[in-house]
Amino acid sequence: MVQKFYAIKDEKAIRPATVVSTFFALVIATGAYFTGSFGRLFFNNQMPLLNGRPNPDLIMPMIIERFLPPGIGVVILVLVLAASMSTLSSLVLVSSSAVAIDLLQGAWPKISKRIVLLCLRLLCVIFIGLSVYIALKPTIILVLMSLSWGTVAGGFLAPYIYGLYWRRTTKAGAWAGFLTGVTLSLSLSFYYRLDSNVVPAIGCLAMLIPLAVVPVVSLFTPAFSTQHLKRVFGEERFELSRDLQYWPRERERVIG
């Protein structure tokens, strides 16, 4: 989403784009999270079992199978398949290019384009094969989703929010929040052996604790200079445009 905002050509579109993207994110997040949370109500807070063990990955499939009309269930499955195919294709291309171009070609700039293209194709096949393997293991999907989202959100959420809205945020504070979230998510998840009943709670913990770590560390570390803050918050550009508006000679000198 940040890259999409960077690609905006007209600054007038930023405000409506902010409203639309925020509303879209709220609809998607609310629908996904509350559907999963209320899924327990359909089974009287009893987790569906697979081979005698609780398996939260079966909540949504069993809801579709037991409580929805067959036609609606088919539509939902088709939508899920379409979304999965589009996401898989984009992720495979991005992951393959990141490894083959950013890493491989970055490490060996003189490598031939033919080898890079061959690596791209091979990595696409490997990543698709890994996706099929994961899809056929219904006990690991929720764990991987919780681990990945918890780690990424735990690492970036607090620095991102404070960096946008609090000028006292420091580089040390951002790094402290990032390392705290990532370390908590990975260490606790593997400590509990990727237990599907615990990993989602660990992801939530990894998102919340950095929200306290970033401001505490920032208050005890050197702040950025006023000039730097004006530049990153766009105030230098605003002051320059204001000065040029009221000082014609200065405007002519800068333009010249």
User: Separation of termini?
Assistant: 37 Å
Q: Cα-atom Rg, whole angstroms? A: 24 Å
Low-pLDDT runs of 5+ residues are none
The chain-level mean pLDDT equals 83
Residues in β-strands, percent: under 5%
Structurally, the number of domains stands at 3
Structural class: mainly alpha
Helix content: over 70%
Number of helices: 11
Shape type: globular
Most strands sheet: 2 strands, antiparallel
Topology:
Layout: H1 2-6, H2 14-38, E1 49-50, E2 53-54, H3 59-67, H4 70-107, H5 113-135, H6 141-165, H7 171-191, H8 199-219, H9 226-232, H10 235-246, H11 248-255
Antiparallel strand pairs: 1-2
Helix pairs in contact: 4-5, 6-7, 6-8, 7-8, 10-11
Your description of this structure?
The chain is mainly alpha-helical and 256 residues long. Helix content is 76%, strand content 2%. It folds into 3 domains: 1-58, no CATH class; 68-139; 140-224, no CATH class. Helix 6 runs antiparallel to helix 7 (171-191), helix 6 packs parallel to helix 8 (199-219) and helix 10 packs across helix 11 (248-255). The protein is globular and about 60 Å long.
